[in-house]
Amino acid sequence: MDMNAYLSMFIDESNDHLQALNENLLKLENDPQDLSIVQVIFRSAHTLKGMSATMGFEDLASLTHEMENVLDLVRNSKLSMDSFIFDTLFKGLDALEAMVQDVVEGGTGKADVSALIVSLQSIVKGDYKTNASAAPSAAANAAEGNLSSGNELLDIFQLSVLKQSIEAGSKAYYIKVTLREDCVLKAVRAYMVFDVLERNGEVIKSDPSVQDIEQDKFDRSFIVFLISSSDQQALKDGIESVSEVELAEVVLLDAESIQLYGPQNEQSPAPKAAAPSAVPQPQQEAKQQVAAAKAQTAAAATAPVNRTIRVDIDRLDSLMNLFSELLIDRVRLEQLSSEIKRGDLSETVEHMARVSTDLQDIVLKLRMVPVESVFNRFPRMVRDIAKNLDKKIDLVITGAETELDRTVIDEIGDPLVHLLRNSLDHGVEMPADRIAAGKSDTGTVHLRAFHSGNHVFIEVEDDGNGIDAAKVSRIAIKNGVLTEEEAKKLSEEQLQMLIFAPGFSTADKISDLSGRGVGLDVVKSKITSLGGHVSIRSKLGQGTIFSIQLPLTLSIIAAMLIKMGDEKYAIPLSSIVETGIIQRDKIATVHGNQMIEFRGSVIPVVSLSRVLDVESFNEDDEQETEIVVIRKGDKLAALMIDSFIGQSEIVLKSLGKYLPAVKAISGATILGDGQVALIIDPNAFIK
Amino acid sequence: MGEELKVIVFALGQEEYGIEVDKVRTIERMQPITRVPKTPTFIKGVINLRGIVIPVLDLRGRFGLNETEPTENSRIIIVAANEMEVGFIVDSANDVIDIDSDTIDSPPEVVGGIQAKYLQGIAKIGDKRLLVMLNLSEVLNKNEIMQLEQLEV
After folding, report:
1. Which of A366, A500, B69, B84 is the Cys-Cys partner for A524 at CB 3.0 to 4.6 Å?
2. Which branch of life, at top level (chain B) (predicted)?
């Protein structure tokens, strides 16, 4: 059987599950009592395990299996989470990610996970806290293993769980599933059976073990003990509806018949007796919680989460281009139908116009991806680094829904990692220093994204110590980046920008995070290669903001379409403050510049027709002129224009490589009628 | 016998010119062109070619010839070279012919007012017909626009 066909699906889904695991573990860390999160985590882990076992990635499967064991105890309230368990689980996730990455790169997904498995197992055994008692309990465990490998299918603990649930009114079943002899994918079918069972109740025990089953290590049949509220026939039907299942033998158990499967000799060793007797009490409560969570799960399962497929970007490009052509034809058709004036023709054309408007929306948005897909790995990273550095840090993410072109998204991850690390390592101080400086001991790092003008801004802000410009210039002089003379001429801001120089580091000592002087210059060159720009705003003692400005190449923005004589232009809506009409005689001349009063302040007025050399319009012929007030940062300016056409969503297109960069023009767009309109860059009018 | 070349033939004034067929994307009729401010006068602006914005230049203006008003026969030839796509406005374009690369001679200094560096050679077709082969990468030389710009400023 050729597994390659499923490989890409496996990779996509594994990545999704790993991401979900990461997110939910972080959530759980903040709220360790919330068992519903554990349920979600458990499900992800379980699916991941099933998939990797089916695909033959055994190390992946065995590691997930051990993690699942730990989670299983947690969700049944037999184990409460603590920082050791979280750390181990996170390490496990990292290992899983590394293995999946290996698979992505064509490897076998093999890795040495034995150390992790041992520590996970020690959590399950509960002996990770007290190493002293490790030896006896390990021995007890071994004994347990011996017992269950004998004739008895259930150990004393599982027996008591079954008994408890029968007493609580649930039904316990012995189920023997036999697969057809010619079944090719036994593990897959078994997995589907387990899926059915888990939807109906809780699997207490399976023989052979779930792990062995998923690795195909079983003959044709396996035995499962299940607690469920469903009736016998429904279960039988459910299991037999899975294809290639030959027979499902479902037997209802009562308190007596269970004993048959339990250990015959009731003389359980003393240390073991202590454990089960401690469990039953919380067990009851846990059951109810589990049942409640199950109900939720069932509801969630019917609404599939984020169904996606992955598409080659080139195909999206050609889709978009084809669509633009369609638009042109649409406009022509509309013209023709208005000339021909036939009722049913214009009706059809109108309908087509509506459909194509919707289609346009969809096609244009296909290429855009929320920055969330980059941001969502940072909480985890920040947590790890903060822990590493013994700092307390809150990461606040805003604007994760801001959309960026896919190609930019792919490139922006690494620079952001550098900037965040830099803020965590150099920006935020140690808790003691923070308290001494009169700040709270927990540092806050903001990561935010937003649209402004033709750009998307991504900012990393910390409330740490800020950049010491004097120190920067001292080091720069020492490293030969600039001379003392030059340093004196630079503004504080320019000095701060020096930290982006290659080989520059202000860290007193090198840590494994940063301080080697590689990083920020890489960030800068990467951003520049994306056509973006990095800037710093920093106040000594108060914090630093790194601001990345990225162009919106090939993205959609809302714009105001305007007319200048017989030409049309688009102005990005995000930089428009307001529009209005002014009397020509209200314009005053100050130092040779035209200014008007606008809402209590005096702002410059720019003649757009002169800047763009428009011949067919001159505002000097008018008594009143329409203006557009634009903004860059906190500075304003008014552009005099001919008339407004209206607001529209436009696609940014580049003017091509041939044309030199044109001042005041940031790109072009194609209007609904197929004409090209130039997009005005408001930033060019304000210095 | 040299290699056989397929060539698109177009006219500027009285002369006939050729561009190798594999450099030509498509040939379009004249259509509305959006002017781009602050560019040399021979750059007529940009057009929308099936969703891609393509700059269009008047080949007469590019070669320093007199520009004329477009006619019914005027065409825009979209060429792709140096990783760029650019449209040329020409007086007419209506022929594809095969020529033998051996028949291409090196160009004289000036042909119809066009400097030799823009030309690849001159091909002789039949007895009387002469075809001027364009050197596209030189025609699309960006540095030259920059210089022109500086001259105009």
Report:
1. A500
2. Bacteria
